[in-house]
Amino acid sequence: MRRINRLKLAVPVAVLGLVVSGSALVQAAAEPDGDAPSKSDVRRAERAASDASRDVSAVRTELVLAQDRAEQASVRTAAAFEAWNAARWEAREARTEAAAAAAAEKQALADLKQRRSELDTLLVGQYESAPELSALGAIADADSVEGVLTQANTYYGTSTAIRDLEAAEDAAAELAGIATADAAKAQDRAEDLAAQARVARTQAQQAEQAALREAQSVAAEKERLVSELARLQGVSVSLATRRQNALEERARVRARKAAEQESRAQQAAQEKTDRPVGSDEPSGEKPGNDVRPGPAPDPAPAPSGSVDAVIAFARAQIGDTYVWGAAGPNAWDCSGLTMAAWGRGGASLPHYSAGQYAASTPISAGNLKRGDLVFWGTTSDPSSIHHVALYVGDGKIVHAPRTGRPVTEESMYYWIPPNFFARP
């Protein structure tokens, strides 16, 4: 009877030992001459299982935090390179302004030289004919009243011309001085911005190297954490890796679906807002007695022909390499691609994402149309924008994601949800 009772007890103990892998109960169940586990043994096993469960949760939390660190480093890199794009763009604009100021200075100096030449010619002529053009000479040589008037008019006409030319010379000199000062300021500004662009490039390269180091660190940490997870769960590292990848993918899918649902809700709310004022009022009432203006409507989309050209161009670049600061023909960064694509649609956009948002008309997420621009920023301030993509409809975008990923078409919720939207 004692042997039967032991067998009956050994079965649940063995099952419990599978659940709490590594506990003392496994050894107890394997020993045929051992006594049955006491209630305290069971409670200790349950506590051990609970502790192991908490350890698994802690490891998974650390995995999430590690992945978040890598993503934040990637965001910082994108922001740094877009800051370089902005500085580079502003430096180019400053060089253009400096060239225009230098051309204006050159023209002003040429005008001044022309006025001085005209004045010199007139003064030399007056000097050579001084006896004839002097007031006394005019009166002395005149043989009649009409002659006196004629000679006097010639003299005063010459004097007036000289004064006019002197005034013109003064004005030209003043304009030349202003143009020279403007040219010097524009040149100084261009040089300052060029220096800032060089600094921004260095900072972006440093951010990229830091992100690479962080990615390597995170990869090593994730490998360690997955190995720990495998030990805690009593499975192979390969199986634990597959499970973790599946968990992360499910989390991404859930986040994407939640963002898509929110976008659809915003679109439905936008459509409701866009209805004409008074459209829901009962017939027989006179609308307008208490009509308050609604929010300003989003701008009309661009003509379908131009939008089709924009999207066709962007899609034609799918598969091209991502390169920081590139704008074609076979390599792109995010803002370089959207700038070139919308160039086909007749819009001139700067080569940096925050500038493209500033150059476009902000719209609501619920009113996205094909060809609109979708932006990612780290805060609610547009100056934090660091990535841009082209919306092609059905919740999808074409964009140049980052180093290591070519131009692609995918869900606009492939990553974190975008938080800015605009129409060029």
Strand count, sense and barrel status of the largest sheet are: 6 strands, antiparallel
Shape: elongated
Strand content: 5-15%
Structural class: alpha+beta
Physical arrangement of strands within the biggest beta sheet: 3-8-4-5-6-7
- Number of strand elements: 8
| CATH domain class name of the largest domain | Mainly Alpha
Q: What's the N-to-C terminus distance?
A: 87 Å
- Return the average pLDDT rounded to an integer: 78
Discrete helix count? 10
What CATH architecture label of the largest domain applies? Answer: Orthogonal Bundle
Structural domain tally:
3
- CATH topology descriptor of the largest domain: Helix Hairpins
Helix content: 55-70%
CATH superfamily membership of the largest domain: Helix Hairpins
Using only C-alpha atoms, the radius of gyration works out to 40 Å
SSE succession: HHHHHHHHEEHHEEEEEE
Low-confidence region ranges? 1-34, 279-294
